[in-house]
């Protein structure tokens, strides 16, 4: 492959169908030579390490990630990335610059996989980002809004609009959405490998999981820690915190209560109403009306305790 790149300088694009991380050095070498590298392969822990070496990475098994929770988690990651790039730039950016910046961090980013018809439509769905067209050259630009962005009217139901608002508020509270499958799998792995540091737990999860990416594993571990599902037991000889699963708990209810307590705090700070029907779309567990009321009371108590 390197010989072709040297001997045929007119070839600028290389497409490699693999998810094997052993090819990462080859990808990086081609990039150093100024070539564009497209990787193609399944979504897996191995492909996550490959895609960072590519100009762009295309997943071949996107149908496996179309569950509602998984789609929301991927969308949350992409929106968070767009916000971070604009915040780091600290200025208005052309959409092409913003998208290139996102691809440089996540070469598999594709707004179509998230259900958006265009990059502009994707950005307009982010309440904290303002998209505008330059009056002189008609180029589209994006910038972070100042203050607390209010929800804007879009072609979506009131419930969908509220869910998006709740997701944005949770991001502000450093609560990242993750699919139920990832949360349950990491929970079971943590049960089987107690008294480890967070880094070692993530390492064990990557070894044993055939489907979860490193990003999904770290997000799930962070949620388990912030929900107090994982608690500090002992300290290692080097002073690292060793985490273990709290005994006898209901995983979905415990995580949902912790998430809602943060959401209620953010809603109060941003003068946003609480709509029970919209809350259901965010929850991991299934609750009848009575159980939902009890969950809300539990979350409110956690919020009051945290703010006391």
Automatic annotation (TrEMBL):
Q: Which domain of life is it from?
A: Bacteria
Which ranges of the sequence are coiled-coil?
none
Q: Which Pfam families match?
A: NYN, OST-HTH
Q: Which InterPro entries match?
A: NYN, OST-HTH/LOTUS_dom
Q: Which residues form the HTH OST-type domain?
A: 74-146
A GO term for molecular function: RNA nuclease activity
For this protein, the record's PANTHER family field holds: HTH OST-TYPE DOMAIN-CONTAINING PROTEIN (PTHR35811:SF1), SLR1870 PROTEIN (PTHR35811)
Q: What protein does this entry describe?
A: OST-HTH/LOTUS domain-containing protein
Species for this entry: Azotobacter beijerinckii
